[in-house]
Amino acid sequence: MNHTSPYLHGGDIYSQPVQADFSANVSPLGLPDGVRQALMESLDGWSAYPDPQCRELVHAIAKKEQVPADWVVCGNGAADLIYRLVHVVSPGRALLAVPCFSEYEKALEEVDAEVCHYIRRKETGFALKEDFLTRIEQEHGLQMIFLCQPNNPTGDVIQPALLAQIISTCEKRQIVLVLDECFLEFLPEYESYHVKPETACVVILKAFTKLYAMAGLRLGYTLCSDMALNARLRQYGSCWNVSVPAQIAGVAALQETAYVDRVRRLVAEERDFLGRELQKLGFTVHPSGANFLFFYSATPLKDRLLEKGIAIRDCANYRGLEEGYYRVAVRTRVENQMLIRALRESI
Fold this sequence. Notes:
By secondary structure, this protein is α/β, with parallel strands linked by helices. The chain contains twelve helices and 13 strands.
């Protein structure tokens, strides 16, 4: 079969045999038991059309996030909402801090936006610095900015003081700031970094994909206090874009507080273990606040590991990165040890 465009992400387990997938950053604990049970018990209801307003799910999210229900818009995963946001705002100019998730730029290109790039420098660990504020002020006519917290693929976290300044600057300049928090809840100190979108220019983007291992169900949501933007976002796209099983799974997942605690503890412990082991092998490993690690290897790794049935994310196709950068998901101890053994044999 011929494909007109290349697949640019991790998780491609369909075009090659993969025994262990470290290229997709989802919870190493798999689907929560409560979600699995809710899906099994609801099978007979899948013959009905989904609720186009996702009412039960929206109210469950609003309760969890402690925001009004009309601040919540649900979608078919975070990627769906990225494209819907861009089409609704239709910015003439936008700013990205690269490297970052490629779907931001792809969505902006669809509306012919002029995309400006702030380059995260390897000399400063790819972290977002105060000069990002200067860049916002210097770029005339900016209408939209995407930031990822923690950033994908580098894993760095924007400090709250800097982020508050960025939000204030965007508010003054009437710039829509989309803050992607899809990885943020892996942080044990999540609440210290989470932004409540009281400021109307801020749109928080979240998904069930990573934390609850629900990538295949496709479920995400936005939080925003701009009611006019929310109304346009709800109206854009297809009517039933969140399926019945996705809505049921989302409601069930929000009850899985013990599961979330387990995931956070496991990721924190295994991220430290995996980082130390990667450093012992001579790789340059960057600090991460997410459920993955970003590192540099002078030795090509992707194909050598695939021969052993292990998939990792080659980051060479990220804007702003060169050959040699890789991202690996944090998995269980057994899986992480398997990766380390395979890497040891490959270098």
